[in-house]
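Batch job 17 of 40 flagged for manual review because the log was empty.
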Amino acid sequence: MSAATRQALEDFLPAEASVHNPIDMIASATPEGYAQALKILLADEGVDMVMVINVKPLVGNPIAVMNEVGKAIPGQKKPVVAVMMATEEFHNEVKERPDLPPVYHFPESAARALAQLSHYASLRRRPLEREIPVFKVDDAAVATLIASSGNGYLPPDKAFQLLELYGIPVARWQVVRGAEAVRQAAEEIGYPVVVKAIAEELVHKSDLGGVKVDLRSPEELEAAVNDIQASMAGADIASDHFLVQEMAKGGHEVIFGITTDPRFGPLLMFGLGGRYVEVFRDVRFGVTPLTPFEASEMIRGIRGYPLLEGVRGEAGADLSILEEVLLRIAQMAQRHPRIQELDINPFLAGAEREDCKALDVRIRVGF
């Protein structure tokens, strides 16, 4: 409260009252005192909304308080709500009074209502964007790739190819068959590398020992391939295909996604990614078409956003590439409705654009 507001309250309230937020007029407050305090508070430029709370013994009736509150609010543009802990007879009576502000039984409900009003006001203040960015993409090639795959999850090579066609950066990769081809791929990509087993029924590779990371030599690579093959055999999964990738380090792991809702159509997702995405569930959703402002809002709306800004001397992420990827997958979702599910997790969000790349992707298509 401003100094002038506090002084105006002190001028008529008892010395025992508190003139700091929240204002406590103490139990001796009169109905007229409520109206006087409300007028003073609504005149303060630092006050955006007011919650009036009255707790009376059950033998009392706060209707007199509400009558005075009703007289104080005509012409006011600031929201006012009331919390009256009274009998049901009282609440039934005030429901029929259009001259009174909304009256709640408990402060939690009133606080939620004010929070929604504040959120709505912030939405109204957003800049009005009408232009949706359009990225130059070979959509015919994307459609051909999808059509050649039938229904279900795309093989890893086609999933990565789809991302590359849509201009989404990916870690260098090769899909190969057999241990010797794995060695050749690692030499071409350059150590250190990551090796992942590929099988249609293999969803969470790391849970079954199907992923080996930071392999720095042919010897480490050979041992890793043998371990993966043993793990797959132990899980009764037949596969001799592998995804070999560059070992990308640094930055923050985030997730991008598309899911299809029967009512809303394609929904976009962004959040903190990695192995624990299903534990923390720190994600935000958006709908297509997506504007640049909405993409930025999705990214800044997650609880872990301060991590992407950088904390305790740690470099932040290149937010511009994250916004661009969201906009690109929004265009993908609109132009290719056969894509029913997409998870880019993790996407490594580095401090520089060249350090940002998709490390893993799953895409499910259907009709």
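Reviewer: the log was empty due to a logging misconfiguration, but the result itself is present. Residues 218 and 268 are 40 Å apart (CA to CA). Unflagging and moving on to job 18.
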